[in-house]
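Entry:
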Amino acid sequence: MEPRNQTRASEFILLGLSEEAEVQPLLFGLFLAMYLVTFTGNLLIILAIATDSHLHTPMYFFLSNLSFADICFTSTTVPKMLLNIQMKTKTISYEGCLSQIYFFMVFGRLDNFLLTVMAYDRFVAICHPLHYTVIMNPKICGLLLLESYVLSILDSLLHDLMILRLSFCTELEIPHFFCELNQVVHLACSDTFLNYLMLYITNGFLVIIPLIGIILSYSKIVSSILRITSAGGKYKAFSTCGSHLSVVFLFYGTFLGVYLSAAATQNSRKTAIASVMYTVISPMLNPFIYSLRNKDIKQALKKLFSYKTLST
């Protein structure tokens, strides 16, 4: 292998989803529309929950935090992409790239933990209804949320610090629309064994284990629901967790699909296009899933809009 020049990178080049000039206005309009829908939809969920006292329960407490995480998750990548298209530039500074990786991982991990906590909440509500208020008390909910934030922040900080030890080659083009951790590590000229090792270990603990927790929670939930004799009781039990289950399938399905396809193909551009599913489309669809399938959210949104109409 021929030695390549090494440097401490000052900036990276984001190649984006397409290098064709005529496609850029279309991408700008499409991603701007999706970002505005994501931001507005999740903000409405937060406001609806905050203004309706009937929704001040553990399930909706975690849902409002999930909506906040989705807004921040999308905001770490899409605005920079839109700015680059508008300014006709593809660069991102070294510090900006590290910041993007950090916040992208923080809110991505937070999504993961919140979905796990929400699955546990549904497990307690359906399998142990008489002890629900005791188990899911405000103190426990606060601790679960705090743990989710702390684990997300520490994991993201670890990977950012691991990048600081790397030296980069002169070729600093990232075939993506944001600084994705794997792509950045791949550009390094120095030894990346520890970076990939820590990535695999943390993904094993912080992605696979929560996913197993969700699967076990829902296996217990399904088992409990099947023991309910009345059809109405079964429907009511299923309806309380249907929205959450849909979001879980959407989040993990798109996330795992992208990374499995990335392992099977060497085409980084196709992987970047596929990653739009979990970075943009999944957070955009979550408010629709919860508002369309949840009567409480529907009523809260109606109250919110009627209040705004009266106030104007």
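DSSP finds eleven helices and five strands in the chain.
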